Amino acid sequence: MSIARLTLPGVLAAALLAPVVGASAQTRQELLLTTGWKFSKGDQPEAARPDFNDARWQQVRVPHDWAITGPFDGNNDLQTVRIEQNQEQKATQKAGRTGGLPFIGTGWYRRELNISGFGPGKRAVLLFDGAMSDAHVFVNGREVGAWPYGYNSFSVDITDALRPTGRNVLAVRLRNQPEASRWYPGAGLYRNVHLLLTQDVHIPVWGTYLTTPEISAGSATVKLRTKVQTPGNAFQPLRLETDIRDAAGKVITTVSTTLAAADGQQFEQQLVVPQPRLWSPETPVLYSAASRLYAGNTLKDEYVTSFGIRSFQFEANKGFSLNGQPRKFKGVCNHHDLGPLGAAINTAALRRQLTLLKDLGCDAIRTTHNMPAPELVQLADELGFMLIVESFDEWKKPKVKNGYSQYFDEWSEKDLVNMVHHYRNNPSVLMWSIGNEVPDQWAPGGVAIARRLQDIVHREDPTRPVTAGMDQFDAAVNNGFAALLDVPGFNYKPSRYPEARAKLPQGFMLGSETASTVSSRGVYKFPVELAKQKKYPDNQSSSYDLEACVWSQTPDEEFVQQDALSYLMGEFVWTGFDYLGEPTPYDEAWPSHSSYFGIFDLAGLPKDRYYLYRSRWNTASPTLHLLPHWTWPGREGQTTPVFCYTSYPAAELFVNGVSQGRQTKGPSDQPQTRYRLMWKDVKYAPGRLKVVAYDAQGKAMMEEEVRTAGQPHHLRLVADHPTLTADGQDLVYVTARVEDAQGTLCPDATNELQFTVSGQGQFRAVANGDATSLEPFQQPRMHAFHGQLVAIVQATQAGGAVQVKATTPGLPTAILRLQSAQATAH
Ligand code: GAL
């Protein structure tokens, strides 16, 4: 049975990781282990011992990425490889493939565990959201658990290794091998570590599974399965009381269930939500199920499961619908790194990414090519993004010498089970992906592996379909691989969708990876022409958005098919944000070490392509954008094409008041002409470039102007939001612009800016989006790239004023004042 052809019931919810609201210390304590860590690079097996002297180790805060401070070096993880996926004929040396950062090797973390009051009748569990990689966990010198895959979450019961009195010491050993990745993986305890202290009788990690099998306008049925653990499996008379609460915390309904011996260790509860408010990207309404577990009259545990109510369908020829409304995924693929912060997770950084994606009109994310951080999934629930949660980049047949294939046989089931248990309650998660471009697509036995993995996922969550990103079209379509997936996903095959429709049984498909157009923010190359694998001596790509890879396309080629084919369910653009590593088309050309694929650059600044996607995806607010910039000393009189990305159907361009004619989007053999307005013969003259956009009735609706910049005159600092939360973690992103006297961006400015942050904030990192820049992200100085860069300021734990100062020789000092405030208690 393929569940993709059935109506998929609405779902689900998240086991909350934050301290349980209202839970008293008598039931459970959920502690984030962020401070008190010591770290050392290099292997020291004796570091597992509690009496080991770590006085000289570095003090760090977790989440922590040991490699992001650099320095960059082309010899770090230097790989001599032939990338089959990229249709390469021979092996070449690739210096920046994994970002050129020093993440290879072994590292140790140590910390004391403060568990006062722990003793008989209590349980302790460590939950790692992700540890890069090959984690071995020791408590008081005893190995209590291990997990090789760096992207997955795992938990370890440490009860038996703890001492009720005296010191308890946690040590974690991590090891990253060379040639194990195709991008920058990060290094260390880069995601959160939680200590969960519970009673003997408790609900285990990810112990609930909530579904909403029936949804109508009048009511939604909520089915909640809750596991309990009782030490030694001794059965006790247990009772579970569950409230369903709305987003404001108001109790809607309550049920109380006693566990019969025949139920085993699992409660099954059913509740009804009248007039449910449905979850969607536009209305991300959440509910919660708050459960209290009693043994007799004693409260033993409290557990909150956050969930949303929504239904979706995948139907032959019709495609995708959410809550009965047909729609197509306006999606991006994103890697896990956060640019200058590296892999170290930070909720504020993720929130900024998602806020930028919202304005783009994006409504979906594929977590390429591995399990996301729980903070991302929770934010996707809250802000409204549909997720494809992906698991693997390779199965048995390797892409890289020391990749996941070495663990696949032993670990693939365990990894899938953890992934599904972790996120099967989250309404944002709509699909599970079992792999990306796995070479097993065409290897003998590959179809059987796909079936096994899909079956595991169905077993653990029958409510969501399984997909995979396929690049080997002929093999996968002809050998049964594509046919067995609930949802076939194709990477970079827009011209072959109709053929797949004819050959495959599902009747629908997904552009699981699309475009891979390359560009560098602020860079425009002449002549302006469509090109594949185009390289320039400066290691940059043109922002006219006409350059792609041999296997990939410009955005417009995908748009044509998305607009024509009803069974095509949308696209996931490669990528939303530039990421560390994979600097195609400069894979062999150090110092390139971060990608050129992003709609946003590595600093999170929009490239021109942002406006092309926005003009199509953001239906709530209009888009009108001109490119290139208009400061071209030396190009006077030369042909300098002007493109306009707009949500309006037509526009007229003026150079210094002289009309260059009106352009209208329309059917054409050339995909670009359908989605962009292009004046290809404009002769450059300094001054003003103006565009007036018209609606379908020919009414002038909006104007946009680009001016030639004069000399750099001042720095302008712009914060993405004015107030910080004084939690020691919150971030504000400050864009620094080099401007002329009129406030026009100086598009070629390369000034080196120096930052000083004072008051209740500290400098965290800086990035300029230049994939060739070897300047470290963690020093408070950097050169502007095409007139801009972004500095990241982090809150301290005290409220108060924060001052950000930027200086550069020859220009006045710029000062930005921000405010940091204590979070208001709810
Ligand atoms: C795809 C692959 C991605 C990335 C991309 C670049 O084939 O799935 O991980 O490598 O190409 O275009």
Q: What would you note in describing this structure?
A:
Residues 637-700 form the DUF4982 domain. Pfam families: DUF4982, Glyco_hydro2_C5, Glyco_hydro_2, Glyco_hydro_2_C, Glyco_hydro_2_N. Residues 1-25 form the signal peptide. With 826 residues, the chain is mainly β. An eight-stranded parallel beta barrel has the order 26-27-28-29-30-31-32-35, surrounded by five helices. The two termini are 46 Å apart. It contains ten helices and 51 strands. The protein folds into five domains: 5-19 and 203-307, Immunoglobulin-like (Sandwich), CATH 2.60.40.10; 28-67 and 103-194, Galactose-binding domain-like (Jelly Rolls), CATH 2.60.120; 328-515 and 554-583, Alpha-Beta Barrel (TIM Barrel), CATH 3.20.20; 630-707, Immunoglobulin-like, CATH 2.60.40; 714-821, Sandwich (Immunoglobulin-like). Residues 1-23 have low confidence and may be disordered. Beta-D-galactopyranose binds next to loops.
Characteristic terms for this protein:
single chain, 826 residues, mainly beta, Immunoglobulin-like, Jelly Rolls, TIM Barrel, 5 domains, 8-stranded parallel beta barrel, 6-stranded antiparallel sheet, 51 strands, 36% strand, binds beta-D-galactopyranose, Ig-like_fold, Ig-like_GH2, hydrolase, Glyco_hydro_2
Please provide a brief summary of the model.
This protein has 826 residues and is mainly β.
Give me the side-by-side strand order of the main sheet: 26-27-28-29-30-31-32-35
Average of per-residue pLDDT values: 95
In quaternary terms, these chains amount to single chain
Tell me the number of strands. 51
- Gyration radius (Cα, Å) is 27 Å
Structurally, how many domains make up the residues?
A: 5
Give the number of helices.
10
**What is the CATH superfamily of the largest domain?**
Glycosidases
What is the makeup of the main sheet? 8 strands, parallel, barrel
Q: Quickly name the level 1 CATH class of the largest domain.
A: Alpha Beta
CATH architecture of the largest domain: Alpha-Beta Barrel
Q: Catalogue the ligands.
A: beta-D-galactopyranose
N-to-C CA distance: 46 Å
> What structural category arises from helix and sheet content?
mainly beta
CATH topology of the largest domain: TIM Barrel
